[in-house]
């Protein structure tokens, strides 16, 4: 059994409206704000209701057959490389402070090229190292942006 | 006003700004020619580069990129029938058949002259309309602003296209929801931060724009590989043919350009309509008013069919600056990104911009003329050379786009959490794109959400909690009625279609 793509989207947003609406009560109110015409909960409350109603309408109206099935929308996609690139980006986020801009960015670019099928060492290094250095020079020397050396260098003294 | 124009002119012709217009046009043309990357991505990628500049220079660079990206999209449409941007889809209807007849050079020249004329005429309209509207809008009150923002958001949803209205409304609401994350500016209380200190300041607009456009578009090109059109494009560029136009052809183009400029500009001013609708409207208008003999040429390489959408899409680009510069309300995803950039420079677009920072206001308008000249004089002859950059293989291009997106956001806060947040936002955006949800309404909802809340709060406080401010002033009422009309028109249309279909089913069953 496969659900219509639009209906699945509407279902997701209905869930989002319910979860969002559930957490609206967690927004703290200042003393006396409970009776104010507009407080920190007013807009979130209205949004939860409106999104809930809009998604519900989309769920109950006749399905748009042109939208196709959910499985068709996700079929034939090349997830492997995208997941590897996502992991590489997360890794870049973890290393940029520790290894510093130059090393972490070079690793990120070389890794990215490699994930997408580039195997020639000359290209891997030739397309990454000069770009990283030029960009670093532009940022630090021309635009005056301070890029701290990685924590690892401070640890090494 | 004259003083302002001269001040803008002197800012726009500063060597750095002239350089930025040229760089912007080149970069925009290159990115616009790349399959899968649109003007929003092109502009978003430029934002980090503009941090060190003053607001005028930054905005001038981005305006150049905007024009360049539209022009680059036209090039792909004409040469290989692969529009890089939705606004240039109609260009391919007659541009591609012309290229197939061996007149690619002529088609590119018509596109460039039409874009130049459309952009220039619209910039003149902008020069006249913007200050008038800005002075009128100085008398606007919080309630009017609230109504205008509602109008902007509903129009974006209403113009979303058949079957997409509810999805666009959903995405607008989702964008407003995202804008409520962080500290409530009025009460100072945290909302939806779940105790995470990194969310106290809310989600940055740049982060959202970069992840939902640049990152997700780059990753989607890997996820859903389309035919790599760059070799076709390079091949087509080798056989351009002559770029010269005959007197007869120029005569045919002039009235088309005049009509399409006006239509394009006013369509661009409407929030949500933008370059895509303008180009289709202009194409449709030209086909409708053409003689029976000329009509046959449409779709087979008609000069009118190519000049009309090209003029209109550029005129609409200029038109879309009117609500941004005068009301501080972006009418499209592209101008929303520009507004986000302006706010990050410390400039608040809106009627006060015209009074307080006239040099920013006017230099942007003046730079539009310069941008159009750059496109015509430099980009057109240099198209074959720009296209050589397309030889950069995808396995190198995508990591570079990812890197520029990530580092652009990281350089604002130097917080690695933002990089992780971008990965999550890009993953959600990819999922939503696969479910066919449009991203631009979300960006507009996000940027207008906090402003709308602020204005609604102020209006309610002033009126002591009464909703009467919605109908007390005629202007507020008119704007809200327009919003209701925009919103109900596609819904009523859908409902009528549904009723018609339901009536048709029993009849079918009788046979």
Automatic annotation (TrEMBL), chain B:
Keywords: Membrane, Transmembrane, Transmembrane helix
TM region positions: 12-31, 108-133, 145-161, 168-190, 202-223, 262-283, 360-384, 396-417, 423-449, 470-492
InterPro entries the UniProt entry points to: DUF112_TM
Domain of life assignment: Bacteria
Mitochondrion in keyword set: no
Pfam families, alphabetized: TctA
Segments forming domain DUF112: 18-444
PANTHER family per record: TRICARBOXYLIC TRANSPORT PROTEIN
Protein name, entry field: Tripartite tricarboxylate transporter TctA
Organism (species): Thalassospira lucentensis
């Amino acid at each position: 059994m496969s659900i219509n793509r639009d209906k699945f989207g509407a279902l997701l947003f209905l869930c989002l409206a319910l979860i969002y609406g559930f957490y609206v009560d967690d927004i703290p109110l200042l003393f006396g704000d409970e009776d104010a015409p507009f407080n920190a909960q007013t807009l979130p409350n209205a949004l939860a209701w409106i999104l809930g109603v809009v998604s519900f309408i989309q769920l109950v109206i006749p399905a748009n057959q042109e939208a196709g099935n959910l499985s068709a929308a996700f079929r034939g996609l090349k997830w492997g490389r995208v997941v590897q690139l996502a992991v590489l980006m997360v890794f870049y986020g973890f290393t940029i402070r520790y290894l510093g801009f130059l090393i972490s960015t070079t690793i990120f670019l070389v890794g990215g090229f490699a994930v997408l099928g580039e195997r020639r060492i000359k290209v891997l290094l030739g397309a990454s190292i000069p770009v990283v250095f030029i960009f670093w020079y532009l940022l630090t020397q021309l635009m005056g942006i301070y890029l701290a050396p990685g924590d690892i260098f401070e640890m090494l003294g | 006003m004259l003083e302002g124009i001269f001040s803008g002119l002197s800012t726009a012709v500063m060597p750095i700004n002239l350089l930025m217009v040229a760089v912007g046009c080149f970069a925009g043309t290159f990115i616009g020619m790349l399959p899968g990357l649109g003007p929003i991505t092109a502009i978003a990628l430029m934002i980090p580069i503009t941090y060190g500049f003053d607001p005028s220079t930054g905005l001038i660079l981005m305006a150049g990129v905007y024009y360049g990206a539209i022009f680059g999209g036209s090039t792909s449409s004409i040469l290989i029938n692969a529009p890089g941007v939705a606004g240039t889809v109609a260009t391919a209807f007659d541009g591609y058949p012309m290229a197939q007849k061996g007149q690619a050079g002529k088609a590119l020249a018509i596109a460039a002259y039409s874009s130049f004329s459309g952009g220039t005429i619209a910039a003149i309209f902008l020069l006249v309309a913007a200050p008038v509207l800005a002075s009128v809008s100085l008398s606007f009150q919080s309630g009017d602003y609230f109504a205008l923002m509602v109008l902007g958001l509903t129009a974006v949803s209403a113009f979303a296209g058949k079957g997409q209205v509810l999805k666009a409304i959903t995405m607008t609401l989702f964008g407003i929801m995202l804008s409520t994350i962080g500290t409530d500016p009025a009460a100072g209380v945290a909302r939806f931060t779940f105790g995470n200190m990194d969310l106290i300041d809310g989600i940055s607009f740049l982060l959202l724009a970069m992840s939902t456009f640049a990152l997700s578009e780059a990753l989607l090109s890997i996820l859903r590989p389309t035919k790599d059109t760059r070799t076709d494009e390079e091949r087509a560029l080798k056989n351009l043919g002559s770029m010269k136009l005959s007197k007869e052809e120029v005569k045919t183009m002039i009235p088309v350009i005049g009509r399409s400029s006006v239509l394009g500009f006013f369509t661009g001013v409407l929030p949500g309509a933008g370059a895509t609708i303008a180009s289709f409207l202009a194409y449709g208008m030209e086909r409708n008013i053409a003689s029976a003999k000329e009509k046959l040429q449409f779709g087979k390489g008609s000069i009118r069919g190519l000049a009309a959408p090209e003029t209109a899409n550029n005129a609409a680009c200029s038109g879309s600056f009117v609500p941004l510069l005068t009301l501080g309300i972006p009418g499209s995803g592209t101008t929303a990104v520009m507004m986000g950039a302006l706010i990050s420079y410390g400039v608040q677009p809106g009627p006060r911009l015209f009074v307080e920072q006239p040099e920013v206001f006017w230099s942007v308008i003046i730079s539009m003329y310069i941008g159009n000249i750059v496109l015509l004089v430099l980009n057109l002859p240099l198209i074959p050379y720009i296209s050589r950059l397309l030889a950069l293989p995808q396995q190198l291009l995508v990591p570079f786009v990812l890197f520029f997106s990530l580092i652009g956001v990281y350089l604002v806060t130097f917080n690695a959490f933002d990089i992780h947040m971008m990965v999550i936002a890009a993953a959600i955006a990819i999922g939503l794109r696969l479910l066919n949800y449009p991203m631009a309404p979300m960006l507009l909802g996000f940027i207008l959400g906090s402003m709308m809340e602020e204005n609604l709060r102020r209006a309610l406080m002033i009126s002591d909690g009464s909703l009467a401010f919605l109908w007390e002033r005629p202007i507020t009422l008119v704007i809200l009625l327009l919003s209701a009309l925009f919103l109900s028109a596609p819904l009523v249309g859908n409902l009528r279609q549904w009723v018609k279909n339901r009536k048709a089913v029993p009849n079918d069953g009788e046979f």
